[in-house]
Structure formats: C-alpha cells, structure tokens
Amino acid sequence: MIKKHDFFLIRLNRPLFILITVVFGVCLNIILSFFGYYFLGINFEEEVEINFLFSKNLEYILIVFIAPFFETFFFQYLLIVVFLRCFFVKIKRNHITFSLVVSSLLFGSIHIYNFYYFIIATIMGFYFGYITLLSEFFREKRISVFISVFLCHSIINLISLIID
C-alpha cells in the first residue's frame, strides 16, 4: 500500500507535509476540472447549479469551513480511522483498501451533481483518504486528520469559489 516515494511524505515535518498535500490536492483538482472542461465539454458553472437559501457570506462559510469539517469527520475520520482502529487489532492491506474505497465512493456519492463531478469527487475522496492514512497511521509523528485533510479540503473549496 505504501510505496517507496511515499516515504518522502512520511518523513517530512508537519508544516511541509501539510503544504505539499494541499498543493498537490489543489493541482489534482485543477487538472481534473480542466480535463472535464476542455476535453469533455463540461461547464461546471452550468452543470452544478446549487441554489442556497443563505446569503453569499454564509454560503462561503458553509462551503469553505462547515462542509469540509463534517465531510472530514464522517468520510475520513469515521470511515477510515475509527473503522480501522476499532474493528481490527492487526490492520491488513485489504482492510485499508476496503475502507479507502468505501470512503471514496460515499464521498463521491454526496457530490453527485452529474456523473463527471461524481468521478472528480470520488478521486478527491480517495486522495483525502490517502492523506488520512499517511497522517494517522504511517507517520511517526501523527498529524490529526482534522488538520491535514480538513485544511486541504477547505483550501480546495476556497480556490474553487475564487476561480468561479
């Protein structure tokens, strides 16, 4: 599950680990969105029309802080960390794979505005799950999932709001 290049991430100090995972997550999101827009002709502003009953400021707070917090808590913390720690004394590769795939698919399914958006969200959910595994299980000095994944998710949502 953990490859040779991952040891680079495991050995980084906390701020650098967070910075690299955030930058890579933002780049991944931009590449996936770029691919959908230019190669598949999907205009996300037209496809994903969400009408909030809130003011714009409250909408931004919801998208940048509240949603990433609850999504991190449920999809990464409960479905990966708590699942692996509570149900398995010795965590095996298939347990990790199962929790990562279930978490990613469920994360994608709550973002199912259209099929391509579901695919992007599932890939991003897989990435957030991967960060969760690295920060909670494979680093000597653990980083809370609420710092690493929540921060990455919040910044990606903020950049998406700024770009739109």
Overview features:
globular; 164 residues; 7 helices; mainly alpha
Structure report:
The termini are far apart. The radius of gyration is 16 Å and the shape is globular. The chain contains seven helices and no strands. Helix 4 (about 55-85) packs antiparallel against helix 7 (about 145-164). It has helices at about 5-10, 15-40, 45, 55-85, 95-110, 115-140, 145-164. The chain has one domain (about 5-164). It has about 160 residues and is mostly helical.
In brief:
Helices cover 77% and strands 0% of the residues. With 164 residues, it is mainly α.
Helix share, percent:
over 70%
Spell the H/E element sequence.
HHHHHHH
Estimated radius of gyration: 16 Å
Strand content: under 5%
Shape: globular
Number of strands: 0
Structural class: mainly alpha
Poorly predicted regions are none
Tally of discrete structural domains: 1
Distance between the termini: 36 Å
Arithmetic mean of pLDDT: 82
Counting DSSP H or I runs of 4 or more residues, the number of helices is 7
Largest sheet: none
Oligomer class: single chain
